[in-house]
Amino acid sequence: VTTICGFPAMLNHIATQMKETGRTFPSVKKLMCAGGSVSCGLQELLLHQLKPNTFRNLYGLSEGLAPITYTPANEICFDNIGFPGCNIRIKVIDRETGILLGPGDHGELCVRTPSVIKGYSRKGQAPLPAVDEDGWLHTGDLGFYDNEGCFHYVERLKNIIKCFDYNVAPSDIEAVLLQHPGVAEAVVVATPHRVCGEAPTAFVVRTKDLKLGATATEDELQELVAGQLAFYKHLYGGVYIVEKIAKTANGKISREQMKHHLSNLENTSHDLLQ
């Protein structure tokens, strides 16, 4: 095996097992990742355990049938999703106005390529078109491109949290939580809140190292986030220490399952704005 391709959660599982068991895979030279951003902690873990010569981010979607963007070959690149492939066009628009956005402006990624499907089949009904009248597929993903034309993925638009009328990407908060040495996994979801509209709420899995894990307390993590991020990104919905993060069959984090899990927990003691 010379190449491993997977979602961040899958790569994390492989590297963690290697660290815990002492196993090595010297034949692996290339890593490829799709389906989400790679945290700083996971970057360090992958580089230390697998020691790849190449790390490539891929961005794609089922409707596109093939990768839409990818980072250059023979490089180690974590912080972007690269450049469009052959015969693929991407634009970034303001979702509310449809206005075309420029470098650095966050908006919805829209894709036009010959491989995009024409529509979604519906039993007993006419197919639902997948693209608009100009042939653009609206991905539902928030992103931007820089001055070099390199694209960056931010978050699924449906996951954006509206806190005090500000748009908050859960990944921004998750990245800070994962800086803590006692945190193995973290996911942030929106919960309804009477004061801020939607409150960022975190679920955290501690590391198996008992000494480090014990330092990842709710108060410690609240302070970590509050010390680095703007007030509207604070964890007003609280921090919950859990045994595991729910994932889909293909290894992606299931935010909907975590929200359902939250409904079964006592929430008032975690509310910062009581």
What's this, in brief?
The protein is of the alpha+beta class and 274 residues long. It has a domain at 160-265: ANL, C-terminal domain (GMP Synthetase, Chain A, domain 3, 2-Layer Sandwich). Helix content is 20%, strand content 31%.
Detailed description of the structure:
The protein has 274 residues and is an alpha+beta fold. The protein has a domain at 160-265: ANL, C-terminal domain (GMP Synthetase, Chain A, domain 3, 2-Layer Sandwich). The chain is built from six helices and 16 strands. A five-stranded mixed sheet has the order 1-2-3-4-5, covered by helices on one side. Strands 6-7-10-11 form a four-stranded antiparallel sheet, with no helix packed on it. A hairpin with a 2-residue loop joins strand 12 (161-163) and strand 13 (166-168). The longest helix has 14 residues, at 8-21. The chain is globular, with a radius of gyration of 20 Å. The protein starts with a strand and ends in a 12-residue tail after the last helix. Residues 1-120 form the AMP-dependent synthetase/ligase domain. This is Acyl-CoA synthetase, putative. Pfam families: AMP-binding, AMP-binding_C.
